[in-house]
Structures are given as structure tokens and as C-alpha cells.
Amino acid sequence: MLLIGESLNVISKKIGRAFKERDPKPIQEEALFQKEKRMDYIDINLGPAKKDGHELMPWVVEVVQDVVPDLPLALDTSNIDAIEAALKVVKPVPSGTPHIINSIMCRPERYERMVPMAAEYNADFVALMWGPDGLPRDENERAALCVELLYFANEAGIPNEKIWVDGIVTPVNIQQPQAISLMEFQKMIPDMAPGARSTCGLSNISNGPPDHLRPILNQTYTVMLMKCGMESIITDPRDEQQTAICKGERQDVVDLIYGMLDGNEPDRASLSKEMLDYAKTVDVILGKTLYSDSWLEV
């Protein structure tokens, strides 16, 4: 599974200050750290960046590429002018892997301007299943949005292989049925959009629960989405266990969760504490256990 590092983000106090003060050092340290932690892409997230995004985004891109020229970037801001300014200065990586626009919503006022931009600069893009009415209610609404946006992109000359579908992850503690809906939608993508790629903001699944519970939720849901065909995740490079799982180094965890999704209930009395925690977390995400912050203690 490909990993897109999420921590070069304006919501970080350290990084946000560096963006504001145009201080390259913390930004470059974070970029180098993400490379060391085996991220495949670096996401540069400016948030809305309404005021000066068109100046800030190209500056950050150049600062990052000065020290990490070999990793492709995901350009992440709702400011369309900032995205275009970055595309004008971003350099190709030696591998030839395209950079990614993260993201284009399924709203005509967004995609009618941004899709031609992706085509002009030969960028991949994340197709975000956020429509005119906001978050889709279920996998069928996600599918309808996906068909609309990918059809428009195909008509603009962008093949499915350059489109990363993001069905949107939501917090399990307040929107648990959406976790299952996204899994069902993920399974639909190969038939609905052959060749299309996929990604998601994985850590949204744990947005709200206490910090000490976030890793087990993130890791468990990652494996569940992997089984449904998810190709990549936007992830925390500091979660080394999650990276190990995604890089194929924790097959025991994958086997347990895949088995449970196939209906094979493990002998819980024989499981280690670590593996039992994963089994309990699968039950929470699937709605077999009512969410509470104490689910691992039950």
C-alpha cells in the first residue's frame, strides 16, 4: 500500500508557524523525516489558504523539493489559484511519478475548472466524493458522484489510471455506518471505474476518540480497507506500526483481520493482548460492538 505523509500540515503549530513566517527549516526537516519514515508521497496541506495561498504554495513546494527532490507531492488546499501556482513551479521527480492534486470535489464549480488544470499539467488528482449536498449517505450515492466526476475527467482526456478516488472516511465514534459504506463503495470501484486508483484520509476514522486509541483504530481500518482494494492512504508518518502493516511487515495482523472479514472468528482465548485488541477493534468498526472509549477494556 502506498503511503502519503499527512504531517506537513498547517494545523500543526510548528509547521503552521513556519508557513506563516516563511521559515524553511521546520518544513525541510519534516519533509526529510517523512522520507526517512518511508512515505511514498508528501502531502503539502495549506488548508483554505484564502489570503496568500497563491504565493505560499509554490514557495513551500520549492522548499520541499530543495531537500527531497525524489518524492512526488500531493498539493492539498481548497484554494484553486494556489494549486495552479504550485503546478507551474513543481519539478518532475526522477522516477516520473506524477504529482497529485488533492483534491477535486464532485461539484461542477470545482471540477469544471480544476480537471482541465490537471490535464494541462499532466497531474494525477484525487476525486473526492463530496457532492453538492455534502457527504454521500451511502455507497450508492458515492458511486453516482464517482461516475459523474470520472466521466467529466475522461471527456477532458484524463484516463482513470490518473484518478485517485476518495470515498471519504468519517469518524467511527459518530458515523459508524459510514465506515462500512466506504468499504462497500471501495469494492465497487474496479467494476465501475476500471483502472482507477484509490486513496483516503485514513486518520479521519479516529478523529474524536482519545489520542491513545487512535493508532489501533487507524491500523485496523487500514487493513479492512486493504482487503476491499484500497491502494493508498494519507497517513501519519509517526505511526511506525501502521507503516509496517502497509509495507507487508505485519502479516499476522493482516491475516487476523482478513480472516474476521471472511467470517472466521478467531479463538480469542488464544490471542495475545495485541491481537485481541485488533479483533475487538474490528468488531467496533463493523458495528458488532457499540462504540465507547473503553471498548478495549471490555
Automatic annotation (TrEMBL):
Keyword Zinc: no
GO biological process: methylation; pteridine-containing compound metabolic process
Originating organism: Desulfosarcina widdelii
InterPro entries per the UniProt record, alphabetical: Dihydropteroate_synth-like_sf, Met_Synthase/Corrinoid, Pterin-binding_dom
Domain Pterin-binding: 1-272
Family, as annotated: Belongs to the vitamin-B12 dependent methionine synthase family.
Any one Gene Ontology cellular component term annotated for this protein: cytosol
Domain of life of the native organism: Bacteria
Protein name per UniProt: 5-methyltetrahydrofolate corrinoid/iron sulfur protein methyltransferase
Database matches in Pfam families: Pterin_bind
Keyword flag Glycoprotein: no
Keywords from the UniProt entry: Methyltransferase, Transferase
GO molecular function ontology, one term from the record: methionine synthase activity
